[in-house]
Amino acid sequence: MDLSNRTVLIVGGTSGIGRELARRFAAAGSTVAVGGRSPEALSALAAEGFGTFGIDVTDGASVGAVRDAVLARYPELDTVVTMSGVMLTEDLRDPAHFGAAEATIDTNLVGTIRVIDAFTPHLLGRGAGTFITVTSGIAFLPFPPMPSYAASKAAVHAYSEALRAQLDGTGVDVVELVPPAVATAGQEKVNPHALPLDDFATEVMQLLSANPTPREILVKGVLMHRWAERDGTYADLVAQRAKALSMFPGREG
Ligand SMILES: NC(=O)c1ccc[n+]([C@@H]2O[C@H](COP(=O)([O-])OP(=O)(O)OC[C@H]3O[C@@H](n4cnc5c(N)ncnc54)[C@H](OP(=O)(O)O)[C@@H]3O)[C@@H](O)[C@H]2O)c1
Questions:
Q1: Are 17 and 182 in contact (CB under 8 A)?
Q2: For residue 240, what are the contacts with CB-CB under 8 A and spacing of at least 6?
Q3: 88 φ, ψ to 5°?
Q4: What pairing do the DSSP bridges indicate for beta strands 79-82 and 172-177?
Q5: 74, 149, 159, 234: the active-site residue
Q6: For the chain, domain boundaries
């Protein structure tokens, strides 16, 4: 993908990975708009020169209104990144987890589908374009404290595969970004192995710039998760990661 001449919308671009990739695409020469809910973050990004759109991906009306506003301002839009996501832990022995499960699925999975549905007619009409979906190493190697998160990301992986097959021959590509733990959203405080955001973004932009663009953007740090099942390390790694369940009350052992 030529990163210097795209017109990109990053939904979930108000912080973390999305905001950094917005800056990287802009630095490479592309035109970039970002969406998210935080008015403060949107104002700060508008001051940096980005087009900004208040959007809640859990609300179909909000997604539809933003689609119309984005296409009115950027009729040449060719790249849509579905970055919005929440990363919540859930103790499945406590029924109160259900609210987190619902929020996770509605944002990460149904929100992704809402955004893709909103922009599919436009990209099909252009006969060229790219959806970049966002999953996680956890889609391929569950982290037991985050069950609905793992389920949502495994689902977005499967959805991305099916979407790619359905759009085959239309000129619209589907690229799946699969981050490992990256030092954003509080990860830096709890996970000493989280990749620095800067290093991660540099590797992502290098991989995205390949021609043809890979179907999956796999930085080196995620290969262990992505291929655990194939490599026969899956059971041991899940057991190791289950030790983190000690974070929940009454599970110290
Ligand atoms: N950091 C990691 O270790 C890691 C690893 C693997 C995958 N990922 C994935 O990468 C993506 C970005 O994560 P991040 O680490 O950069 O976290 P982050 O800083 O918390 O970013 C999440 C983004 O999603 C947006 N968002 C959340 N709920 C939304 C909603 N209802 N409507 C619209 N936007 C919403 C947030 O914007 P507002 O709050 O302004 O709405 C923000 O821009 C997520 O999909 C995450 O699952 C992250």
A1: yes
A2: none
A3: -115, 140
A4: unpaired
A5: 149
A6: 7-223
Query: Does the active-site annotation cover 234?
Result: no
Q: Report which ligand 1 atom has the smallest distance to the Cα of 138.
A: 6
Superfamily name with CATH number, domain 7-223: NAD(P)-binding Rossmann-like Domain (3.40.50.720)
**pLDDT digits 0-9 by tens, 38-88:** 999 999 999 999 999 999 999 999 999 999 999 999 999 999 999 999 999
Given a contact cutoff of 8 angstroms between Cβ atoms, the answer to whether 201 and 180 are in contact is: no
pLDDT at 103: 98
Task: State the chain's mean pLDDT as an integer.
Answer: 96
At 172, the amino acid letter reads: V
Distances (CA, A) of 39 to 14, 33, 35, 87: 9, 14, 10, 21
CB–CB of 39/23 below 8 Å?
no
Nearest residue CA, atom 47 of ligand 1? Answer: 85
How high is the pLDDT of residue 250? 87
Q: Per-residue pLDDT averaged across 152-161, rounded? A: 98
* CA distance linking residue 212 with residue 208, whole number of Å: 9
Q: Give the H or E element holding residue 118.
A: helix 111-126
Burial 133-166 (b: 16+ CB within 10 A, else e): bbbbbbbbbbbbbbbbbbbbbbbbbebbeebbee
- The CA distance from 147 to 241, in Å, is 12
CA distances from 50 to 22, 81, 187, 250 (A): 8, 15, 26, 47
Which of 14, 110, 241 is the best mutation target for the ligand 1 pocket, counting ligand atoms within 8 Å of the beta carbon and taking the most?
14
Kindly report the protein residue whose alpha carbon is nearest to atom 37 of ligand 1: 36
